[in-house]
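From the methods appendix. Each design record in this collection lists the tokenized structure first, followed by the designed amino acid sequence. Records were kept in a plain field format so they could be parsed without special tools. The example shown here is representative of the layout used throughout.

RECORD:
FOLD TOKENS (74 positions):
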């Protein structure tokens, strides 16, 4: 997962709350850092995304394959 894919996945899942979720929600899966802190510290976006999904109770059906651009829009 690329950083841009991470951002699309967060935007799609959390909508208007996306910025808050990335900057304010502490994620135990990445050392109790926020997603923004973890990414800045070099944690792979996929690992941050999965930690965010676990913390926010995102159903597994919406965790994998998200963030990819629709091939028709490229």
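DESIGN:
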């Amino acid at each position: 997962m690329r950083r841009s894919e991470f951002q699309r996945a967060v935007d799609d899942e959390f909508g208007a709350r996306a910025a808050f979720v990335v900057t304010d929600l502490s994620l135990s899966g990445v050392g109790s850092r926020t997603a923004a802190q973890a990414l800045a510290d070099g944690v792979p976006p996929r690992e941050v995304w999965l930690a965010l999904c676990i913390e926010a109770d995102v159903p597994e059906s919406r965790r994998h394959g998200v963030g990819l651009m629709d091939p028709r829009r490229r």
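APPENDIX NOTE: The first helix runs from residue 3 to 14.
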